[in-house]
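Module 6 notes. Inverse folding takes a fixed backbone as the condition and produces residue identities as the prediction. Think of it as a translation problem where the source language is geometry and the target language is the twenty amino acids. Below is one complete input and output pair. Work through it position by position during the lab.
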């Protein structure tokens, strides 16, 4: 000891040398709502992450305007926030999702007695863009799925992934979430867990069923042998024997598309292609809604517009006086 008096140490600081700023009341309200969504509403991780990004952007925008109390938020602030998103180039669907998150938060705060105002009550959703979903022609889908895949464990797996995405119309998150116990191949069904943790049965047959059976017969067992711990229940495995990620599926689909000259292919285009080709083949709209897991028939009806567009293109190309 040198006898000198040492000043008491202050709070430990971060790498930048500053103490973390205390949360504002508005930030606490945001966190309360996100906690409610995670625990009581049981939203999926992907949906919760999207809500978190949207609400973080909303709270940051209000903070820049000097607003950190929930009851200080006015309808004009929200309208200006939405206008700023539009000017930044966000699509109508993204803007509406953000507004849905903001409206939900303010309703929750009112219901829980944490706020006395509901500034979003009269704010309207943006008009949806009239963009039709991208889809493959039947010829493109055939070329994609009939290309020669490597006769390796990964090649057999990748072929099965593409066949199931197109043959069943499932979302990429639904495909990666499939467990072996969800397969009822003798009955030609898959049990799929979709948005909001809702389960549904999806038919599987033909080349999709054959490719999946081929993968399960040998390749999956070989991939599972690489697992360092217990065997995964997942249907589709990565090289380490674990559940394959959505990012990996995106890479597989894009690479397979590029091989046959289809640039920028992603899993959702295969889902759109499934729906478009089903309707063109005479599928009932209500049945297709059930297979796709759409909560509203209006979501499924977009594919009737796609089919009409295709019919018009054929008409214009074929009719001598069109």
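Target side of the pair, the amino acids:
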């Amino acid at each position: 000891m040198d006898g000198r008096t040492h000043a008491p140490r202050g709070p430990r600081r971060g790498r930048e040398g500053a103490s973390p700023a205390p949360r504002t009341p508005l930030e606490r309200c945001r966190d309360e709502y996100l906690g409610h969504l995670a625990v009581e509403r049981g939203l999926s991780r992907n949906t919760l992450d999207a809500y978190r990004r949207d609400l973080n952007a909303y709270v940051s925008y209000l903070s820049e305007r000097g607003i950190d109390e929930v009851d200080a938020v006015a309808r004009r602030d929200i309208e200006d926030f939405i206008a700023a998103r539009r000017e930044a180039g966000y699509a109508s669907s993204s803007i509406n999702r953000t507004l849905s998150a903001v409206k939900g938060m303010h309703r929750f705060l009112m219901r829980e007695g944490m706020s006395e105002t509901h500034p979003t009550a009269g704010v309207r959703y943006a008009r949806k863009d009239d963009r039709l979903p991208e889809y493959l022609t039947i010829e493109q889908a055939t070329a994609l799925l009939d290309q020669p895949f490597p006769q390796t464990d990964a090649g057999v797996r990748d072929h099965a992934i593409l066949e199931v995405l197109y043959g069943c119309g499932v979302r990429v998150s639904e495909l990666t979430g499939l467990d072996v116990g969800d397969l009822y191949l003798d009955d030609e069904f898959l049990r799929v867990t979709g948005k909001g943790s809702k389960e549904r049965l999806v038919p599987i047959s033909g080349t999709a069923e054959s490719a999946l059976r081929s993968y399960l017969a040998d390749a999956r067992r070989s991939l599972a042998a690489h697992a360092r711990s217990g065997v995964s229940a997942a249907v589709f495995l990565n090289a380490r024997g674990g559940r394959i990620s959505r990012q990996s599926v995106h890479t597989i689909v894009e690479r397979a598309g590029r091989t046959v000259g289809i640039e920028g292919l992603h899993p959702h285009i295969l889902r759109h292609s499934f729906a478009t080709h089903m309707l063109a083949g005479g599928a009932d709209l209500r049945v297709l809604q059930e297979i796709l897991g759409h909560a509203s028939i209006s979501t499924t009806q977009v594919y009737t517009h796609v089919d009409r567009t295709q019919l018009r293109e054929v008409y214009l190309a074929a009719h001598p006086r069109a």
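Reference fact for the lab report: The CA atoms of residues 209 and 223 lie 20 Å apart.
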